[in-house]
Amino acid sequence: MYKQLIRPLLFCFDPEAVHHFTFSAVRLANKIPGFSSLFKSLYEVNDKRLEREVFGLKFKNPVGLAAGFDKDAKLYQELSNFGFGFIEIGTLTPKAQGGNPKQRLFRLREDSAIINRMGFNNGGVDEAVKRLKKNKGVLIGGNIGKNKVTPNEEAVKDYEKCFNALFDYVDYFVVNVSSPNTPNLRALQDKEPLTQLLQTLQNLNNAKSSPKPILLKIAPDLTDEQLLDIIDIVKETKIAGVIATNTTISREGLKSINRIEAGGLSGKPLTKRSTEVIRFLSEKSNKAFPIIGVGGIHSAEDALEKLEAGASLVQLYTGFIYEGPALIKAINKKILEKA
What we know:
This protein has twelve helices and 13 strands. By secondary structure, it is an alpha/beta fold. Helix 7 packs parallel to helix 8, helix 8 packs across helix 9 and helix 10 crosses helix 12. It starts with a helix and ends with a helix. The mean pLDDT is 97.
């Protein structure tokens, strides 16, 4: 129904406007008595064999929603009714910011892809915390970044502020230094500044009575040498794991006219590369840390490839938009078939 009726209608309109409309529609539907139960009955797969324990957390299934969809933690409760095992909110910054000028979100229908240059638009971490205080049992990841106006030399302070504000309200953290849409942010992926950033956060974490898992989200555009650096950094700082991968700046093989737009590319063109990165990290580290696989998952088979390449969990974003919530159920069903 989604791909035949709903998606063609939604794709007639501006992507960002559709995103806000969809949020309102899902929120409204869940307020109607019985609708949240209906969504769960349609999309949720409950089976003990789907449960995963990763970096000390228990996930009811391994399929999550990637950061960027519910930036401000406005819809995580309702989105969990579609069968996700966990929801990652953010990227959040210390202060609210509007992001880059519109238009900043583009569909590439011929490529089953999206280009975004949103620029960490969000209402600030404190506003998100107010909503997270109302959480009723959803496993939440908190994706954190720096404000655009904060120079890289002071970036650590922004991450510290977000970490401290969110600590009591999320189950794990994701350090985002790999978005291509904040100027110079990816320079923080270099070995020295990245080690310093992660070690600072890990020191804060270890001072807590019950530390939370900290993960690093990396770009798919890193070289093998840089990926080996990532393995060394994870080992040195003892963070919990890696999310592979964020969006790409590559435009190789694209057909759509929108390929000329600046920003991060997600969707099917990323499928192969993100899986390659997962496999490289898993093999070269001898499976030393958990990996969450994300990037170009548009089918159950795509998800299984990432799990077989070394991912412990997977996340959806663009595939969720193109394929609809039935994709979550399909992945969980396929995992059970292989169990």
